[in-house]
Amino acid sequence: MQKAQIGSKLHPQAYRSESLTRQLTRVLMVRPEFFGAAEPKNAFSRQNTSIDLPLAIAQWDKLCEAFEHAGLQVLQIEPHFGLEDMCFTDSQAFVGIDREERAFAVPSRMLHRSRRDEVEHFTRWYSNQGYRIIDLGLEGEEFLEGAGDLIWNPDWESVWAGYGDRSTRGAVDLFASLMGEMGFAVHKLELVDPYFYHLNLSLAPLTPNAVLIYPGAFAPETLAQIRSLTHTLEVSREEALGFECNGVSVNGYYITPRLSRRLELILSGHGIEPIIVELSEFQKAGGSVASLKMLLP
Question: Which domain does 182 fall in, by range?
Answer without folding.
Answer: 22-296
